Amino acid sequence: MASQTLLVSIAIFITLFSSTVHSLTCKSQKLSGSQTYANCTDLSALGATLHFTYNATNSSISVAFSAAPPSNGWVAWGVNTAGGGMIGAQALIAYKHSDGKLAVDLYNLTSYGGIDPVKKLSVDTWDVSAEESSGAVTIYAGVKIPAKADNVSQVWQVGPVVSGKPGKHDMGKENLAAKSALPGTAASAVAPAPASGSGGNTTGGGSNKSGAASLMGERFSLGFYLTVILVMAGFLSM
């Protein structure tokens, strides 16, 4: 009886773990809002996704950026009109404030630490909001991109909340790789995809890299599952 209970527990654990690992991709992710996006890309680091629609008429981009933060941590997405990384980026950072509510603050990232939120960014933003679902946080926003900017990059990140404010993120390989050309702009042209809730996968942000990362993640998951099963089997045979 104890053996059967243990096996059932293992099966439930593996099912839940598998669901968590594969939940945040363009193909599987479903946004709760009514707005649809023309494209979606699995970003090349931190298991993040970006749904987006670029409007060439007014040089703006509507986005829904999703990532899984550390426990009670923050997620961030921003643009750098000079084409660089974090320094100089105009960022949207979502985290739970002291009242326990998830909100988005605006940050002009001028340094690697000691920054405070600002009331307005150097790029216009509108319809900024955030929501949390299944361990992931999604930031929604419209962003005006300078019409003559031909080297716009995007940056994204996750990190801890320390003393009620966004703290420094890790400096691991995934964190340092969390940047790319902003899809849909002159810096990274993309072919239009049919508009839908989940969007079509594009090359903006590195779909080839994300595919490799996904494959590595699947191999890791499979190896992890087999290890758990073998260990549990050893206990059962004792």
TrEMBL record:
Signal peptide from the UniProt entry? 1-23
Which residues fall in a compositionally biased region of kind Gly residues? 197-208
Q: Please give the residue ranges the record annotates as the region Disordered.
A: 189-210
**Keywords, comma-separated and alphabetical:** Electron transport, Membrane, Signal, Transmembrane, Transmembrane helix, Transport
Among CDD domains, the record links this protein to: DOMON_CIL1_like
Q: Cellular component terms, GO, for this chain's entry?
A: membrane
Domain named DOMON is located at 46-159
Annotated compartments: Membrane
The UniProt transmembrane annotation reads 220-237
- What Pfam families does the database record attribute to this sequence? DUF568
Q: Which PANTHER family match?
A: AUXIN-INDUCED IN ROOT CULTURES PROTEIN 12, CYTOCHROME B561 AND DOMON DOMAIN-CONTAINING PROTEIN
Name of this chain's protein: Auxin-induced in root cultures protein 12
Q: Which organism is it from?
A: Arachis duranensis
